[in-house]
């Protein structure tokens, strides 16, 4: 049995519980469940009785050789370049595993309960063996539904801390915030602002925490007015940049917690007749294709979205095979990608 979600009285006993009840090892109980012949009749009887007594539900065995085995990938949007990176990573890993992938956009919770239920029911109707979610969050009713139907699932880059026991894959956001800020400090900047996403999301909070930690390690005082939140929205980031520029002592550099928001920062600076990086250095986060297309090309922290998605798919395959991952949270490293949007602060540059 695979139990990928949070604790639930409807989830049923694990194979370990069955094995303990029957007085055998977990591998022996697994042999009985999977119909193996190399089990003594008396042992098989004890395990079978324990299975029935405890109400253990046998899941169909995953076998990549029996095509097509379907998994669902549910993304928050089919239009963003970030979702494209996730799709590419899942597609490559699924090809290696011999799986077919069904891709869909997540349900709009504003529509009410019935559309959400219809969407969930489609998972069982088409016989999906597992689900990858690249959504900001799932609702309690969605978690409960997945647990009740014993569908293995893995979250890719969730915005909020998932319930205990839910498997997820993310990036080292705190370290990314540290490396972005240390890069700017190394160039000589001391008036460094940050434009974050949402106040209470995991990734945004960790990036801001990394920013603050790097400042503290360098002995630079953290200024509350240099911390702004834009909800990962490009237009809002543009407004927050104008607010920073209106301060009595505006920053000389800004760490922006997404590449999309960095586009809004560029727009605001252009509206003020300021240039990147001559008047202000800018560091983004994600390393989306847009980071290379804009001028000047954006220095950013690379979040390995494709690798995160591929890792999530491999974890899901293991869960479909009846394995339990050793840990529920996997984090992949981020790294700074220096480009042309950062330079020494104006007063620190040598005269031409």
Order of the strands making up the biggest sheet: 2-1-3-4-5-11
* Element string (H = helix, E = strand): HHHEHEHEHEEHEHEHEHEHEHEE
Helical amount: 40-55%
Q: Overall pLDDT, averaged? A: 86
**Strands, count:** 12
Approximate shape: elongated
Alpha plus pi helix count = 12
Based on CA atoms alone, the radius of gyration comes out at 25 Å
Descriptive labels:
352 residues, alpha/beta, six-stranded parallel sheet, six-stranded mixed sheet, 41% helix, 15% strand, elongated
Structure notes:
With 352 residues, the chain is an alpha/beta fold. The chain contains twelve helices and twelve strands. The strands form two sheets. A six-stranded parallel β-sheet has the order 2-1-3-4-5-11, with helices on one face. Strands 7-6-8-9-10-12 form a six-stranded mixed β-sheet, with helices on both faces. The protein is elongated and about 85 Å long. The termini are far apart.
Brief summary:
The chain is an alpha/beta fold. The protein has helices at 15-22, 26-33, 41-54, 81-97, 113-125, 140-148, 173-186, 202-217, 234-245, 259-271, 289-293, 305-320, and strands at residues 70-75, 100-105, 131-134, 153-156, 168-171, 192-196, 227-229, 253-256, 281-286, 299-302, 329-332, 335-337.
Can you lay out the helices and strands and say which pair or pack?
Layout: H1 15-22, H2 26-33, H3 41-54, E1 70-75, H4 81-97, E2 100-105, H5 113-125, E3 131-134, H6 140-148, E4 153-156, E5 168-171, H7 173-186, E6 192-196, H8 202-217, E7 227-229, H9 234-245, E8 253-256, H10 259-271, E9 281-286, H11 289-293, E10 299-302, H12 305-320, E11 329-332, E12 335-337
Parallel strand pairs: 1-2, 1-3, 3-4, 4-5, 5-11, 6-7, 6-8, 8-9, 9-10
Antiparallel strand pairs: 10-12
């Amino acid at each position: 049995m695979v139990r990928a979600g949070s604790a639930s009285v409807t989830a049923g006993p694990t194979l370990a519980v069955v094995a303990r009840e029957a007085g055998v090892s977990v591998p022996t109980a697994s042999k009985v469940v999977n119909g193996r012949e190399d089990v003594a009749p008396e042992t098989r009887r004890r395990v079978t009785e324990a299975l029935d007594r405890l109400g253990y539900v046998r899941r169909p065995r995953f076998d990549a050789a029996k095509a097509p085995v379907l998994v669902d990938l549910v993304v928050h949007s089919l239009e963003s370049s970030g979702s494209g990176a996730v799709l590419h990573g899942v597609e490559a890993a699924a090809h290696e595993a011999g799986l077919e992938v069904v891709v869909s956009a997540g349900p709009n919770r504003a529509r009410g309960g019935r559309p959400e239920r219809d969407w969930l029911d489609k998972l069982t109707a088409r016989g999906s063996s597992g689900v990858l979610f690249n959504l900001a969050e799932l609702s309690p009713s969605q978690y409960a539904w997945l647990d009740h139907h014993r569908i293995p699932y893995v979250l890719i880059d969730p915005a909020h801390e998932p319930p205990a026991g839910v498997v997820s894959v993310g990036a080292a956001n705190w370290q990314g915030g540290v490396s972005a800020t240390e890069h700017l400090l190394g160039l000589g900047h001391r008036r460094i602002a940050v434009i974050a996403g949402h106040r209470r999301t995991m990734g945004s909070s960790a990036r801001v925490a990394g920013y603050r930690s790097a400042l503290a390690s360098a002995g630079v005082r953290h200024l509350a007015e240099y911390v702004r939140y834009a909800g990962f929205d490009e237009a809002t980031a543009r407004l927050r940049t104008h607010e920073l520029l209106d301060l009595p002592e505006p920053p000389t550099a800004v760490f922006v917690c997404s590449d999309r928001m960095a586009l809004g920062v560029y727009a605001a600076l252009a509206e003020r007749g300021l240039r990147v990086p001559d008047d202000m250095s800018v560091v983004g986060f994600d390393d989306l294709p847009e980071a290379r297309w804009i001028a000047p090309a954006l220095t950013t922290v690379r979040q390995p979205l494709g690798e995160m998605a591929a890792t999530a798919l491999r974890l899901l395959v293991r869960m479909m095979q009846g394995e339990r991952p050793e840990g529920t949270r996997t984090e992949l490293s981020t790294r700074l990608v220096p480009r042309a949007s950062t330079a020494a602060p104006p007063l620190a540059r040598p005269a031409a």
